[in-house]
Amino acid sequence: MNTILEVQNLKKYFSSQKAVDDISFSIGKGSIFGLLGPNGAGKTTLIRMITGIFYPDSGNINLNSKKFNPSDDVIEIGYMPEERGLYKKMKVGEQAMYLAQLKGLSKQEAFTRVKEWFEKFEMQTWWNKKVDDLSKGMSQKLQFVTTVLHEPKLVILDEPFSGLDPVNTNLIKDEIFKLSQKGTTIIFSTHRMEQVEEICDHIILVNKGQKILDGSVKEIKQQFKEHIFSAEVDRIPAVLEHPSFSIVQQNNNNLTLKINEGYKSNDVLMHFINQQSNIIGYHEILPSLNEIFIRLVEGTPTARKFEPVTA
User: Fold this and answer.
1) Three-state SS string across the chain, please?
2) Domain 3-222 - what CATH class?
3) How confident is the model at residue 191, as a pLDDT?
4) Averaged over 131-152, what is the pLDDT?
5) What are the C-alpha distances in Å from 117 to residues 40, 66, 136, 194, 195?
6) What is the mean pLDDT of residues 129-158?
7) pTM for this model (two decimals)
8) 3-state secondary structure string across 253-284
9) Whole-number average pLDDT of the chain
10) 103: nearest Cα among 44, 54, 49, 145
């Protein structure tokens, strides 16, 4: 895997608060990487160090295999914060042009790219509108455009679908996939686990400033599976009970089964075959990321208490 970003033993303390406490991870080029955690987990502090807004107390950040230098390397990053950073009194077109040139584009390059994105997102008629006059969803589209139009190698999106209707959500989602296919790396932070499952190929979960989970979405779902299966049969057998499984739920001829320790799926299937009950459908039910998230962070307060920092 070609790595674009490597975070090594990163720490950031505020007074006696361990906001980020010894977190390490790496992100491959072109991947869509989910940064997850409950409120107060340290996600925003972590993002602000990756973007050079905060300096870490200790640890290293490497971008493209070199030590991250905010003054030089921030041009390679596009950051869409959860708290929007648009100038409300500026006109939409003027603001897009200004932010594009701030990221190093010439006036002509900026105009060409802004025009292309505005046409793609059907924003041409917004050019002379003030940002203050836009709805939350319209502001969100503008924020996304200004984040990516300078073609950064690393894009960080914090709750990018907030306030968007389903049509515009799909529009931005499609653009995220296209950027990834072209080699852009995406860090995606959200509380919507169903979006993470759909979009991300790798995630980390942070809680109380520490990393508690790291892996591909497929690996993590396998790691937390509980050997629960869904089975549909043409008829319920005369003898349903068997040592190989327990019934979790039954709805007519649809069964949810938990395979007991020491047994395999074949043992369950053979029982139904021996009872002359034909299997119409059979598949494993893996836990959702939402279920895994709740299991790992359940009981975590939304705001952490201050903890003494020791050397």
Assistant:
1) CCEEEEEEEEEEEECCEEEEEEEEEEEECCCEEEEECCCCCCHHHHHHHHCCCCCCCEEEEEECCEECCHHHHHHHEEEECCCCCCCCCCEHHHHHHHHHHHCCCCHHHHHHHHHHHHHHCCCHHHCCCEHHHCCHHHHHHHHHHHHHCCCCCEEEEECCCCCCCHHHHHHHHHHHHHHHHCCCEEEEECCCHHHHHHHCCEEEEEECCEEEEEEEHHHHHHHCCCCEEEEEECCCCCCCCECCEEEEEEECCEEEEEECCCCCHHHHHHHHHHCCCCEEEEEECCCCHHHHHHHHHCCCCCCCCCCCCCC
2) alpha beta
3) 78
4) 90
5) 35, 31, 18, 27, 24
6) 91
7) 0.84
8) CEEEEEECCCCCHHHHHHHHHHCCCCEEEEEE
9) 88
10) 145
The answer to whether residues 63 and 4 touch, using CB atoms and an 8 Å cutoff, is: yes
Q: 248 — phi, psi (to 5°)? A: -90, -40
* Inter-CA distances, 78 with 38, 62, 162, Å: 24, 16, 18
**Which residue ranges make up each domain of the chain?**
3-222, 226-285
pLDDT grade for 301, boundaries at 50, 70 and 90: low
What's the pLDDT at 147? 94
Instruction: Indicate the pLDDT class of residue 66, thresholds 50, 70 and 90.
Output: very high
> Residue 103 to residues 22, 114, 213: CA-CA distances in angstroms?
31, 13, 34
pLDDT in tens, 183-206: 999 999 887 888 888 899 999 999
The rounded percent of the chain whose pLDDT value lies above 70 is 95
Using CA atoms, how far residue 253 sits from 232, 241, 305, in Å, is 6, 14, 51
Write the pLDDT tens digit of every residue in 145-162. Answer: 999 999 999 999 998 888
